[in-house]
Amino acid sequence: MSLSLKKQTNISLSFFLIAAVIGLFLRFLFIADVEVDFKYFLHAHSHVALMGWVYLAMLVLIRLCFFDTKKNKKQYNGIFVFTLITVVGMLCSFPFQGYAAISITFSTLFLFASYWFYWFFIKHASKQTRQLHSYRILKYALIYMLISSIGPWAVGGVMATLGSGSVWYRIAIYFYLHFQYNAWIILGLIGIFVYVLEHKGILIEKKAIKVFLMYFNSGLILTFFLSILFIEPHGIYYILSIAGGALQLVSLYYIKEAIPDLKTKVKQIFSHLEFTLLKWVSILLLIKFVIQFFAGFKPIADLITNYKNLTIGFLHWTFLGVITLSLFVLLSYFKLIKINKAVIYFYALGFLLTEALIFWRPISFIFNLDFSIPQYILLFVASLLLVIGILIIMLKQFTKKI
User: Fold this and answer.
1) Rounded to two decimals, what is the model's pTM?
2) Transmembrane stretches, by residue range (predicted)?
């Protein structure tokens, strides 16, 4: 099967729409009595969003940036199609059985597909790109992708021995999420962004990039301890978590230092809408790192443990905000998707409303606020806005005018 990069992008975007529709259905379950297993559909939602939308879109961008698209085309298409089959398998199995034989099989095959792509990247990346700073950043990102897979492998062992009620089960899940959301995807997006600048002939300061990677990688390892604070470990782990958050905050400064006059140069390369979105992504990313820093302090860590919505809100902040908006910008820059202000307003409104409503319940409990709102109905409406925004982008893929 031969698929153009545009068709591959449409496939990944279709999975995003499917994940959003499943998310909308999950919101509906809070306001209507429907006899389905909530967790089964939640697993389908998270796997399709992360592996169908984000992973496949990242594959397309990495292929476009770091490879000669005329070479090794058959092998790359094989990787994409094999990965696609595993995602479809998860989509068709998780809603009906949750974690069971079929879904676990497809999830395991997906891990092998990711290993295959890593090997393909290391072996076939073009000679020109191997000299770029962006290649080095992407290489780290993909290594973190491999490391994250330890989590799913550990989950199987923990379930077979200690059961899903074990604290180690949660730690294994958090390990996977940490190295996915905070490592491979974020660093991968930064690497692709740096590639765009390098491709345009913009000078990148080598020393600043090295320092950025040093702080980012060190902070990334230490912020993993945020994932175990729910067990209230020894105080040293809180200190390490705070130190990790501080290091990652500092790393952002060195990205700016690596590219002198960054704002002016980015404004020249990207369209006005893409530049505006990048500014918002920068703000959202900064807030993400600030949240991680403060999450290491015990009073806040305890709040996060006691109020699950804080964790859900943070994950959506990262996924729907930082990651998805970055993908919109990069895919738009490479002419793989079409976006305009109306679409982005729809999506942004849905994103901001869902975040506000998700955070509302824990905030109202924490500050003892009596003002009540029909949260679940409003969440359903806000999620509907997200679905409409993604649907419009999908429809625009098949029209000539933006």
Assistant:
1) 0.94
2) 12-32, 44-66, 78-96, 102-121, 142-169, 175-197, 209-230, 236-255, 276-294, 314-334, 346-367, 373-395
